[in-house]
Amino acid sequence: MKREFILLLSIALSIAITLSGVMASEADRVGEIAQGKEALRALLPTEEEIAGWESSSPPRFFEPGNLWEYINGQAEFYLQYGFQLVVTSDYASREDSNSLIVDIYLMESPRHAFGIYAAERTPDDNFIDVGVQGYVAGNILNFWKGPYYVKLTSFQSSPTGEEVLIKLSRVIADKIPGNYSEPELFACFPDKNKVKMSERYIPKNFLGHGFLKNGYLVDYHHEGIRYQVFLVENSSPEEAEEAFSKYLNFLKTEGEIISHEKKSDYQKMRTKNRKKVVIFQYGSILGGVLNFGDSADEDKIIEKILTKLRGRNRSQSGGDNDKKGFNQQSFPLIVHLPHRAPVPAVSLYAAGGKR
Prior knowledge:
Elements: H1 2-43, E1 53-55, E2 60-62, H2 68-71, H3 75-80, E3 83-93, E4 99-107, H4 110-120, E5 126-128, E6 133-137, E7 140-145, E8 148-154, H5 159-175, E9 200-202, E10 215-222, E11 225-233, H6 237-253, E12 258-262, E13 267-271, E14 277-282, E15 285-290, H7 295-315
Antiparallel strand pairs: 1-3, 2-3, 3-4, 4-8, 5-6, 6-7, 7-8, 9-10, 10-11, 11-15, 12-13, 13-14, 14-15
C-alpha cells in the first residue's frame, strides 16, 4: 500500500512539474508575442508624422497560426521564410478619398527579411533608396531593413500617390535602428555576366532538396545562355560533405554521368550529359554552377568563387553566419490585401536545364 502511495505521489508530482513547465512556456510565448506587437506598433507612422493623413482603423495583428486569414494562399510561402508576426493598418487622406495600407512583417532574421523581399522583386522594378533597398511599382512600395519586410499599398495609382508612399516608407525606415546590407556571402559570387537584382536567399528545400538549406542563388546571362551560380551555407564542413554526398547520389540515381575529383582543400563533381551541373564542397560551403555547359569556363567561375571564399575565411574567425554583415540589435523573438505574387527562384536544373 505504501509503495502504491509513493508511486501515485511520484506520478502526481511529475504531472504537476510538466504542467508548470507548459504553463511557463505558454506564458513566455504570450509575453514574446506581446513584445513583438508593441515593437511593430511603434514602427507605424503617427498622424503627426504624416500630415494630412489619419489612421482609419485600429492596427490588426496576425501570427503564424492565423496568417492565412490575411494572405491566404501566400501564408505558407511566408512561413518558409521565418514569418513571426505582422501588423497591418489602414490610413485615409483628410484631403481627398485616397487611402492606403501599411503591412510590417517581422521575420526570423535580417537574412530572412531580405529573402522574402528578394522573392517578390524583379530586375525590372523601379528601385529606390529606402531601408536597405526598396522598389515602387504603380500603387505599391516594398522595402526591407533589419528583420522587417514592409509593404505599402495605395488605392491611388498616380505620381502623387507614389510620393506619399515614398514619404511614408522613409518615416518607417527611419524608426528601424541599425545599418544593414545584403547577406555578405553574395560578395563571393562572380560579378561578370550577373543579372542585376537576381540575388535570392532560399532558407529551405533549396533546389528542391530537403537536405539543402540556407541557399544563395544568382542568375547569369552570357551569349544567349542563362545559367545560375549557387552557394549553400552549412553549419560545419561535415554537414557540407554529407550534403555533397547526397547530391552526388541523387544525380547518380538520375542516370547522370559523373566525374568526381578531390583537390587539396575542396572536392568537385560534374555531370556530362543532359543536366549540366558542376558542384563543389569547400569547408562548410557547398556551391556550383547550373546549366553553363562549358567545362573550362565553369572551372574558372568556381576558382574565382573559391578565391573569394578563402579570403573570407582568412578575414573572419567563424561564428553565426546569419549575423555577419549585420548590425546587431535586440529584436523581439517569438516562437494583405492585394499582393504581388512572389517571383519563384526557379532552378534551371530543376526546370530541365534548357538553354
